[in-house]
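Section 5.1 Outputs to date
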Amino acid sequence: MTTAHQSPGESRPGGRTARTRQAVLAAVFQELDEGGFAGLTMEKVAQRSGIHVATLYRRWRCIEGLVCELLTELSSDVPLPDTGSLPEDLRALARSVAAFFGEVRMSALIEAVVSAAARDPQAAAVLRSFFGERLTLAGQMVRRAVDRGELPADTDPEELMSALGAPFYYRILIARRPVDRRLAESAATAVWAAARAGAYGTKGGCDVADGTSPGGGDAADGAAPGAGAPTDDTSPGSS
């Protein structure tokens, strides 16, 4: 992923329909930049994009539909790695997410949508739909890892990927601090260690009281067959 992010519609090839879509998404992005979610209307998007408002309603139906498609478009620039190793996949994905949110416009966009979701049920539905789709897509990485024997068979892909993303949203929305590569490395390392210990299993995680996994024994016993302790040299960030 490149860190010099283009606005939607800035030099992407395609026919008339593609150009219309890109012009509209670029306008949505610019309007969100200037007025936030609360100030976003179909009429403003139509005026800025030069696309008739009836076309917007026919294709996207509502502002929330436009914002959801914008989020999907922008997030498509964060590739899903397939290196053949889950710890490497997690590290690569975390780095791409860090680069994505390292841009002020990207972090401001997610802030605007999350803020709107707290007040507006329709905006909340957009956010749930977007993250649900992204978690399902990213979960492919986890399913491949289970097939390779890297993780317990009952590992929940969406729970694992949610845990990977959580530190980024905490940093952006709560701590209000910049996202950086160090955060990416620590998030990937922590999630890999927890996953191997069975923390994201659908049968339950580790017993906090006695440090054992649901099947008994050490928490590390819940790791994938052949896996060592989470601190060995297969963890993300190791050289």
